[in-house]
Amino acid sequence: MIHTDVVIVGAGPCGLFQVFELGLLGLKAEVIDSIPKPGGQCAELYPDKPIYDIPAIPVCTGEELTNSLLTQIEPFHCAMHLGEEVTTVKRQDDDSFFVETNTGKHFVAKAVVIAGGVGSFQPRPLRVPDAELYEDRTLHYRVRDAQEFHGKEIVILGGGDSALDWVLELVGKAGHVTLVHRRDEYRAAPASVAKMRSLVAEGKVELIEHAKAVSISGAEGRMRSITIQVKGGEADGERAVEVPADHVLVFFGLSPKLGPIADWGLDINRKTINVDTERFETSEPGIYAVGDINFYPGKKKLILCGFHEAALAAFAIKQRLEPDKKVHVQYTTTSPIMHQRLGLPD
Ligand code: FAD
Questions:
Q1: Pocket of ligand 1 from Cβ distances under 6 Å
Q2: Can you give the pTM of this predicted structure?
């Protein structure tokens, strides 16, 4: 059981900046995100694209913004629990919150900030009959233990970085690697694509393009083969190929889903959470929501708006935890206590 002042659900830019604003006020936070890296949409959807509307930063990429935020929160030594989805947020008798993740990690926090963006990123599933019977046994959306693929017939579906990285990682270790992609253009880094193509030319990797998986053969969760439909084949323009497979790795990218947040008893407005604009508190006192996930009249889904919301939510949380004290605004330029919290020399 991890005890903390605040649990932040989501390590997107607003969740990260929330750590900073809480830290300045002397509050400790733990951050949980369902994807294995921090940065939310900036890291997952547009790491290389330039952002031009972060105040005082004329231009930075999604990845650079994430890295700067991580540097900015370093003084607060906040623990990050990545690759874990928050499944439960429950108020306890003493008004603290019990928070649980899908890996069974438990937290007790005095307040919760939901910075869940457009929801929890989930792998896009392979849509073939009975796919769920194989899931996590021989059909994988993420790799937990690469050793189990060694010496095996592996089929990898997708054309992004994850698909290509795993082709390059498993070649020579797996018994045989086949890459199946629906096009002949790739979203993956050009260097990875070039390397994959040279492995194909050397006969070390099999490549099937303009193709999609249509069915799985096997029994009791053990796979035997996967049938691939390839365009540009016989008379009707398509042909089916049966590829032997012990394991199939699917990397079709991630799509956001509001997910468990919808079950926490909050006042939800379509896929967003209603908050007030003074504290950014939800309908449940002690649970706050900042960034893309919240809604109020005039809401704009912009990073800079989320940063403002995080600042006000931090003040509200401080006031909630110390109701008898007035929470004063202090300037980072001149406040000795803030300098101390930032780990600056006297
Ligand atoms: P997100 O970045 O969405 O992060 C939320 C995180 O919460 C995710 O990582 C998710 O996995 C996690 N999460 C959700 N539910 C759970 C759960 N139950 N358990 C664990 N984790 C959970 N904005 C700008 O201001 N300027 C721009 O130029 C700009 N360009 C953009 C370009 C593109 C292509 C896109 C898609 C967006 C752009 N945006 C831009 C929007 C901006 O990225 C978002 O406003 C911002 O990412 C919102 O930050 P956030 O922290 O609220 O949420």
A1: 9-15, 32-35, 40-42, 45-46, 51, 53, 85-86, 115-121, 259-261, 291-293, 301-304, 306
A2: 0.78
